[in-house]
């Protein structure tokens, strides 16, 4: 494994900055909902539409991202996505009604839908395989830093300035990203692109949007349980029809052949999907544990979360050397077991736990989570061919959207089930303990699947030699 070339490093950093812009926006808005509601003269609960419409718009347009990048060039579509997101951010900041904000958030969702898969595509097309680990580590850090910085920055801007600055702050970052992309990223296109697969687009967009909306409803109990179940069934049936169409079509919107690549399939569809669901459940449960189980206020709960996310960031400098020394298979197996133990250990935490024990468990949980994420995200594309990159990147983004919402839904479901068994109308410390144990077991199960990987899996990327 060689160090990342200067050109490839710069491209990865530009893409990472765009990812950070998107992640920061998602993390910031939750801290400002009461103030936004008061300003727009609506109920706080009504503001949830701003989050939902973003998610649905993003889900609807993710499937077309690969085709657009192939047809018009990955760089140009990436720049377009940043421009759309930036202009929509300005519209959000200037909104005077909930309707205006909702439309602007939908436009943001369109930009975000194209940004992530196309940005990853840009990096894949401009990075040699033996440098992919370094590049992936760079574009992974926004997902780890934005959740830390977002709530703090959002609270500061809302308290001392206005909630509108949570969106307006995106404008200079966005335009700087556009300028850097224009100057330093080459515009690669596919030599031959086919006509847009409209049927595949409609089926996949409907399936992803309906499924995510149903899972979101489960997680937040916004609707009567019958409707989310019905929507889930509709989404799954539509998804099945979409997959069937992609297999039969001569020129499908999504080429599913990457699922035949063992490393891609395991890292995205089986072990990777289970791990991502579990790893999303943990940061959902921890703040609730600190506030409901420990009785802490939001500020104190957020302070404890810093230890968890500090672990996520602290692992970055040593991830590449570890993978180079031990390889993907052994790292994913050993680190997966440690991750499982760390998550299960969260069930031991009580209000009387020593501060040093809490910090140690949270820090180690964050460290191992970061390692597993980087290893998965890198190995997933290690054996994907050049012709599969567009569809594989798009498909990976779709699966990540589903697993992130599933993680929150899983955590919410476990708490509700344990609460219902005890016939209580609120969650207790015991409910969270059960939730962490279940999540830890899921991570362990996902780890066992990595036994199917060959010992030299991704060796060309990691530089590891058995």
Brief rundown of the structure:
This protein has 19 helices and no strands. With 466 residues, it is an all-alpha fold. It folds into 3 domains: 1-185, Growth Hormone, Chain: A, CATH 1.20.1250; 197-252; 254-466, MFS general substrate transporter like domains (Growth Hormone, Chain: A).
Features:
about 475 residues, mainly alpha, Growth Hormone, Chain: A, 19 helices
Characterization of this structure:
The structure is a single chain. The chain is mostly helical and 466 residues long. It folds into three domains: 1-185, Up-down Bundle (Growth Hormone, Chain: A); 197-252; 254-466, MFS general substrate transporter like domains (Growth Hormone, Chain: A, Up-down Bundle). The protein is built from 19 helices and no strands. Helix 1 (6-29) packs parallel to helix 7 (132-160). It is globular. The two termini are 14 Å apart.
Q: Which oligomeric state applies?
A: single chain
Would you tell me the structural class of the helices and strands? Answer: mainly alpha
Poorly predicted tracts of residues: none
Looking at the overall shape, the CATH architecture of the largest domain is Up-down Bundle
In CATH, the homologous superfamily of the largest domain goes by the name MFS general substrate transporter like domains
CATH fold field value of the largest domain: Growth Hormone, Chain: A
Rg measurement, Å: 21 Å
Please give the domain count: 3
CATH class of the largest domain: Mainly Alpha
Sheet with the most strands?
none
Q: Could you give the count of β-strands?
A: 0
Number of helices: 19
What is the N-to-C succession of helices and strands?
Answer: HHHHHHHHHHHHHHHHHHH
Q: Assess the beta-strand content as a share of residues.
A: under 5%
Q: What's the average pLDDT?
A: 86
Distance between the termini: 14 Å
What percentage of residues falls in helices of 4 or more residues?
Answer: over 70%
Basic shape: globular
């Amino acid at each position: 494994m060689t160090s990342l070339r200067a050109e490839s490093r710069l491209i990865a950093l530009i893409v990472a900055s765009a990812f950070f812009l998107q992640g920061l926006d998602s993390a910031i808005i939750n801290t400002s909902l009461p103030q936004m509601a008061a300003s727009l003269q609506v109920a706080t609960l009504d503001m949830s539409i701003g989050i939902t419409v973003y998610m649905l718009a993003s889900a609807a347009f993710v499937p077309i991202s690969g085709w657009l990048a192939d047809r018009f060039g990955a760089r140009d579509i990436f720049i377009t996505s940043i421009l759309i997101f930036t202009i929509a951010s300005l519209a959000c900041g200037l909104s005077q009604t909930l309707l205006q904000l909702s439309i602007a958030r939908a436009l943001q969702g369109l930009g975000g839908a194209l940004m992530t898969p196309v940005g990853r595509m840009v990096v894949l097309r401009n990075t040699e395989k033996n440098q992919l680990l370094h590049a992936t580590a760079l574009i992974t850090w926004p997902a780890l830093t934005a959740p830390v910085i977002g709530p703090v920055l959002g609270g500061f801007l809302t308290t001392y300035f206005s909630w509108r600055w949570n969106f307006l702050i995106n404008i200079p970052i966005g335009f700087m990203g556009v300028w850097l992309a224009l100057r330093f990223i080459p515009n690669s296109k596919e030599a031959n692109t086919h006509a847009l697969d409209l049927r595949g687009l409609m089926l996949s967009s409907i399936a992803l949007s309906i499924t995510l909306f149903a899972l979101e409803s489960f997680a937040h109990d916004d609707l009567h349980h019958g409707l989310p179940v019905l929507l889930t069934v509709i989404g799954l049936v539509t998804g099945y029809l979409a997959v069937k169409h992609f297999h039969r079509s001569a020129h499908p919107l999504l080429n599913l052949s990457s699922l035949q690549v063992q490393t891609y399939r395991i890292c995205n569809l089986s072990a990777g999907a289970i791990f991502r669901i579990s790893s999303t459940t943990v940061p959902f449960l921890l703040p609730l544990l600190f506030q409901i189980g420990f009785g802490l206020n939001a500020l104190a709960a957020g302070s404890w979360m810093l230890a968890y996310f500090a672990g996520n960031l602290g692992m970055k400098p040593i991830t590449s050397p570890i993978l180079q020394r031990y390889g993907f298979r052994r790292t994913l197996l050993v680190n997966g077991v440690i991750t499982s133990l760390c998550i299960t250990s969260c069930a031991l935490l009580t209000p009387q736990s020593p501060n040093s024990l809490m910090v140690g468990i949270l820090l180690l949980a964050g460290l191992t989570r970061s390692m597993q994420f980087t290893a998965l995200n890198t190995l997933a594309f290690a054996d994907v061919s050049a012709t599969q990159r567009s569809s594989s990147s798009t498909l990976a983004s779709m699966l990540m959207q589903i697993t992130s919402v599933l993680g929150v839904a899983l955590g919410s479901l476990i708490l509700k089930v344990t609460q219902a068994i005890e016939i209580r109308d609120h969650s207790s410390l015991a409910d969270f303990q059960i939730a962490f144990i279940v999540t830890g077991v899921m991570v362990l199960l996902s780890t066992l699947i990595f036994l199917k990987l060959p010992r030299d899996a991704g060796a060309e990327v990691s530089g590891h030699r058995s």
